[in-house]
Specification:
Elements: H1 3-13, E1 18-22, H2 39-51, E2 57-60, H3 62-66, H4 71-84, E3 91-96, H5 100-113, E4 118-121, H6 127-130, E5 140-146, H7 153-156, H8 165-174, E6 183-187, H9 192-202, E7 207-209, H10 219-226, E8 234-238, H11 240-243, H12 251-267
Parallel strand pairs: 1-2, 1-8, 3-4, 4-5, 5-6, 6-7, 7-8
């Protein structure tokens, strides 16, 4: 299946718009895992196995693996998700942005090496920085649009010919760039009015929405601003609030409970 087909199936099968972000920080791991060479893989697979029936996607953030020379554990983690929880898409959060042959190599990294089902991409360099990713028609390409950080407004709110820059990105992504139907957008939960604006511009294009949980985004406002007519269209990401819900050996069970509560809170407003 393509990424968009996998995502649609996961929305329905798991009755979930929740995406769990996998941002492993060994300093926050339980004592049993401290100092182990495979600690990142062990921690993340336990979280995945505890929450896989509650999510529509998993989103590993590549920096948390690369900074600790754990890219091999990232490969193993994605392989584990595909083998043990088939049908749950994996979004590699890499925010790559380059052109030509370099972008092609980044695409090989994400899709051939790591076997991700989708990747986050920075579209700042324009259409030819997006096109190399679209050469993989079964994969998702999720462009940064209106990000959840306060400084996003420094550039994303600039006027470009009578519209804000993030609106231009949304319009291009939902229209002339999206010739293959692969594109999604990142829109932060901390800005529900902008979520609604993006949804109005792009129709049913999937939105990856970070910013609930530790970043303080409002679940009700996020869902009501971004859902599509059938009550889907969103991948609402929570990372730290789920990963580190428990501090002891029962961390996976605590993560499951946090994920269950978050999924159900989202569903109340669909």
């Amino acid at each position: 299946m393509t990424f968009t087909q996998m995502l649609a199936a996961a929305w329905q099968k798991n009755n979930s718009l929740l995406c769990v972000g996998l941002d492993p920080d060994p300093a926050k791991f339980p004592a049993r895992l401290k100092g182990r060479d495979d600690a990142i893989l062990e921690f993340c697979t336990a979280i995945v196995d505890a929450t896989a029936d509650l999510v529509c996607a998993f989103k590993p953030q590549i920096a948390y693996f690369a900074a600790r020379r754990a890219e091999d554990q990232l490969e193993a983690l994605i392989a584990h998700i595909h083998a043990k929880h088939p049908g749950i898409p994996v979004i590699l959060d890499a925010k790559r942005g380059d052109i030509g042959s370099t972008a092609e190599q980044y695409a090989v990294e994400a899709f051939a090496r790591f076997q991700a089902d989708a990747v986050t991409v920075n579209p700042y360099m324009g259409r030819d920085s997006v096109e190399p990713w679209l050469a993989y028609p079964d994969k998702g390409v999720i462009l940064l649009c209106r990000t959840s950080n306060p400084g996003g407004s420094d550039l994303q709110f600039l006027d470009v010919g009578g519209e804000k820059l993030y609106e231009r990105v949304a319009r291009l992504a939902g229209g002339e760039w999206n010739t293959t139907g692969q594109i999604g957008l990142v829109v932060g939960a901390t800005f529900p009015a902008e979520i609604a604006r993006v949804r109005a511009l792009v129709g049913d294009v999937p939105l990856l929405v970070p910013g609930i949980g530790a970043q303080g985004g409002d679940i009700e406002a996020t869902v009501q601003s971004g859902r599509t007519a059938d009550g889907t269209g969103l991948m609402i990401n929570s990372s730290r609030a789920i990963l580190y819900a428990g501090k002891d050996e029962n961390y996976a069970a605590a993560a499951r409970q946090a994920a269950l509560e978050t999924r159900d809170a989202i569903n109340r407003y669909r």
